[in-house]
Amino acid sequence: MTAANVLGGVLEYCSDDPVTGWFRDGCCNSDANDRGRHVVCAVVTAEFLAFSLSVGNDLTTPRPDHHFPGLKPGDRWCLCATRWEEARIAGCAPDVVIAATHARALEATALGHLQAHASE
User: Which of 9, 31, 41, 75 has the smallest number of Cβ neighbours within 10 A?
Assistant: First the structure.
């Protein structure tokens, strides 16, 4: 079965540099074990990375033991849907690649919010 994006189409690829996704397959796929719902394909910014660090999630420091390279502004990354929504409310949500954002993101935020932050 093919995963759907928030628009109901086929979920597109998010990133292979760095390789992202719950399954580290480059897509924002998810399953029942993904309690954080890493389903929003975002283009991270310095402002978002600082916000994430301020709420206890350091996304810039490499963690080789978790196959995590550390992020820099401009990287595409499958973010937790609830973290993206927190950042939106705080006014620092990164842009979103709509076609690469899994339909499960709609469990945490509205389609209109994602579309308002759509990347080019």
Answer: 31
Structure tokens at 54: 């301020």
Rounded Cα distance, 31 and 2, in Å: 13
Angle (deg, nearest 10), helices 46-54 and 81-90 = 100
List phi, psi (to 5°) of 57. -125, 95
Q: Which two tokens stand for residue 62?
A: 């490499």
Query: What pLDDT, in 10s, does the model give residues 82-98?
Result: 999 999 999 999 999 99
Q: Are 104 and 41 in contact (CB under 8 A)?
A: no
Q: In whole angstroms, how far apart are CA 34 and each of 47, 50, 71?
A: 25, 24, 20
Q: Which residues, in sequence order, are CB contacts of 12 under 8 Å at separation 6+?
A: 5, 27, 97, 99, 100
* Confidence (pTM): 0.94
For 12-66, the pLDDT digits (tens) are 999 999 999 999 999 999 998 988 899 999 999 999 999 999 999 999 999 998 8
User: What's the pLDDT at 66?
Assistant: 81
Task: Name beta bridge partners: 42.
Answer: 77, 96
